[in-house]
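Collaborator request, handled under Task 6.
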Amino acid sequence: MLLKYIRTIVLLQIACVAAGVPVFAFAQTPVSDTLKLTVRQAEDQFIKNNLSLIVARYNIDNASAQIITARLFQNPDFSFANGIHATGVPNAFSEQSASVSQLFYTAGKRNKNIQLAKIGVEQAKYQFFDLLRTLKFTLRNDFYTIYFNEQSAKVYNEEITSLSKTLTVFKEQYTKGNIAQKEVLRIQSQLYSLQTEYNSLLAGIDTTESELKLLIKVSPKTYVEPIVTLDSKEMVSQMPYQQLLDSAYVNRYDLRLSKATVDYNDMNLKLQKATAIPDVSLSFNYDKLGSYGNNFMSAGIAFSLPFFNRNQGAIKQAHIAVDQSKVQLQSQQDQVESDVATNYKGALRLEQLYNSFDPQFKDDFTHLIQEVFKNYEKRNISMLEFLDFYDSYKTNTLQMNNLQLNRILSLEQLNYATGTSFFNK
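Structure tokens returned to the collaborator:
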């Protein structure tokens, strides 16, 4: 009668687990509010509120202001002098002179500076969009990681709850001498192992959720609950590799930034060569009581003679910067090709592995564990055999969750590598 009572308790607890009925609510830190989000809603909130993106937008505005500065002409210089004293001259205050001069850039320096400023704006924009690509990738990874890890955490939570209650009953019966100590220790050992794994999983969820909250800028006390609709269609195998690579060449903003850097250095080289050509200053002068005659007016021109300093050092540095940026561009192109090829292979492999599993396997496995319940009730298998089988059920469920997570993350990685949202739209 006693063993039948114990067996009934265990069966009721684990049957709830197999049927997907939670024994008690999923453990979370007390929160003030729950925010349910789809990945699209999370992205919208991220774009509106993320502080890193706001700072990067200011960089674009700052670079645009440099164009205004580059377009401005130099202000004219004006000087005026009035006589104060002259030996033997009673009316020294009558002597007045004035001069106006204007500096003019030569060799197209002004236009070259404007072009440099415009390229600088392009660079700021590319940096912004590459930051957006990176943070968006992080957000989506965090979103899906939280979802699937929470699904796994529920499995731990349910099994821990079941074993905890079973352990309590077994301890009571052991003290009465109705069961052997080894059965108590077996359950206790498995319970401690599950609790340790469960705690590590929760710590990882907390860390990932903290990062997600910062990205979408919500209160740390808010519990974010991801809403995910899974799509099991074969998608990677239907996407030609060359299309992915061509998209990466066009849409990878880090690659476009490298190209813009080459353009910037080319233009800077032209500017440094132009700087070797002296600028010209034109002036107009007036002297009321000049030594040559009254109301003397003259015009002048001034420029430096490029005998020694012809900007040789800056020109050499500009040449080096051009060569360096070209090598960097080639390196970036190689990196893009490597990223696309590696992530395409990985995503294709995970997709094939995922599709190789029978969709009915999970349901069949759940049905099988119910049959195990019946066999245990009929004493065809021992309790330890039953617990071992249930542990394999837990392991299989966790592996399936990890496989689905890795498959989705591989698609996100491929989106990141190509700079285009081909998958998980």
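The cover message to the collaborator said: "Strands lie at 33-37, 77-82, 96-104, 222-226, 280-289, 294-302. Residues 8-12, 14-31 have pLDDT under 50 and may be disordered. Please let us know whether this matches your experimental observations."
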